Each structure stands twice: as C-alpha cells, then as structure tokens.
C-alpha cells in the first residue's frame, strides 16, 4: 500500500470519491459538489499548509484519502477517509503508519501529529491504536453533529516524534475504559456460503435493491412495514445510504446477498436491534421473489447466524415474525431457531390495519 499525492487535475475524481461514499462520523456526512469545489479552489486540499494523498492498495485501487493540514505548524492534523467498500480490511491503520512516516521525515522535524474523532467511531479508534497513536483527551459533548442537531463526545489521539523514532508508545493512564474500545470486535465485512456471496452494503447497490424490491413489492407489503411506501429510485438510494452508514457505525449489520455463479443480487439478511453489551441481535431478512423456493435464504441465515456466534461472540440471536408468515417462520426453523413464545396481539400488522400475533424464535450459545 502507498500514499500518492493528489493533484488539481484529479479534482473530479476527488469530488466523485467524496460524494459517492458515506461519512457518518464527519460534520458534513454528505458533502455536495459545490461545497467541495469551493474548498478545492480555496486551497482546502492542496496549498503550502495542506497536502492530500490518495491511499492506494497493491492492486492500484484508490481505497481512500488522507489530508494532512497545519503543515506550517509544529503539530500537523489530519483527516482520514476510507471508501465504503474497503472498510474493515485494515487500510486505515496502514495509511496512518504511512502518514506518520511522511510527517516525521519532513525537514522541519515536526514535534507530534494529532487526530480527532467522535468517541463512538470504533473503527477509527482501532485504526489509531494499531498505528501506534495514544488516546490523549476525551472531551465531553464537544463534537456537534448538524444532521442530528446534537452533541457527541470527542476523543483525540496523538503520536510524538520520540515514540515514532523509538518505535514505541507511551500510554496515558486513564481510569476510564470506554465501552466502544472493548465491546465491538473486529470482523470481516464479506464472507461466503456454498452458493452465496454475503457482504456489507455499498452505495452502488441501490439499483439492484430497487429492482428486487420492485419485483417483490406485493409480497413484501404483506409482511414488512418499510414496503408500505411508494418506491422510487431516490428513496431507495437514501435507504441504501442509511444502511451503509448504520453498518459502518455498527448500529445495524445488514448484509446484501449475491449468487456466486452469476453475481445477481437476491435479497438482504442481517442483524438489527443490536445490544453490544450483552451481545444480543435480532435477525431480519427478505428475498427477491424471483429466487424463492431454492433454499437461498435458509443458506444465508445459517451463515449469518454462525458469523454472529463465531465472530461477534453473540449470546443470543432472536427472530420476530407474524404468526401468519409461514415462509418466514420456516426459514427460522430450518436454521435451528426454537420457538420461545407467541405474543398475542402485541403489534400492528405490516399495513397497520390489524393486530398480529408475533412468534418469538431464538438461538443462544
């Protein structure tokens, strides 16, 4: 992997990168072209004080960017971004190692380098630690997030010149142990079953999702609340963008399913209503009706449940389903779930016109 300096001739490529990926932990999570053009024009990506680098892997793919700024100061700062489909593969920590090498080998002999992130950005915090950075500050309610009109805690990580030269870290001793540092394990965002590729959602999946839902809407509307609204490409794109953001933040882990032989998209299955403290997950899934009757969803569910127990150290995986949804119930039973109870008239039906009996299935360790 390497850092390749960005040039103004690559303006459109940079804008495309910034507008087609999701940035759920940044102040501006969906930057527009006009804003980016203005920032580029004003030297926000290349000047005497700022340099931007592409992060390229060994296959010459541009997996991210890192911008280092305040280069005329003794303590530069940086902004690191990895593209959606390359997250979870360790590129962030490797890019930080390359960046620290660049900074500390500058002729000005910089004293230290610093980065900031939201306290709940587990992936970025792991990248800091793996690259040898040390947590140096925890600022309560210091990170304003305009999209939600709320404040989050902010954390700062740094590396000193002395630690870089010695190849060591000098930790700051803290009494606190943040929940996000120890509760969410690392895991790969793509795996396979015998016939399926199961991977994290990407923004360019929107047309596949739209086509599958459009074909399946009569069936989906019987059992799912989200299918009650009119479907548009724009609405689908927004849904996919939200799904990507929730996957990155580990709020929900919705996997897209593809046939290995043909690459066709066939549906979604994933883990929702996550409680990381007790490792409890709720299973949800839907299948393009074009692919019903071939055992694909049972195969996907078995693989995802195994992933939950093996990789996420799940203690419990639940499945909630309308008592009348026989196909949905059959998948859960074939995947080894046990019926724990039937909650009578406990929730509105998908269309909101009736009350349904909800079957509660579960698997435990």
TrEMBL record:
Keywords: Transferase. This is Protein N-acetyltransferase, RimJ/RimL family. It holds the Pfam family Acetyltransf_3. The keyword Lyase does not apply. Residues 1-162, 218-356 form the N-acetyltransferase domain. InterPro entries: Acyl_CoA_acyltransferase (IPR016181), GNAT_dom (IPR000182), Ribosomal_N-acetyltransferase (IPR051908). GO terms for cellular component: cytoplasm. The keyword Coiled coil does not apply. GO terms for molecular function: protein N-terminal-serine acetyltransferase activity; protein-N-terminal-alanine acetyltransferase activity.
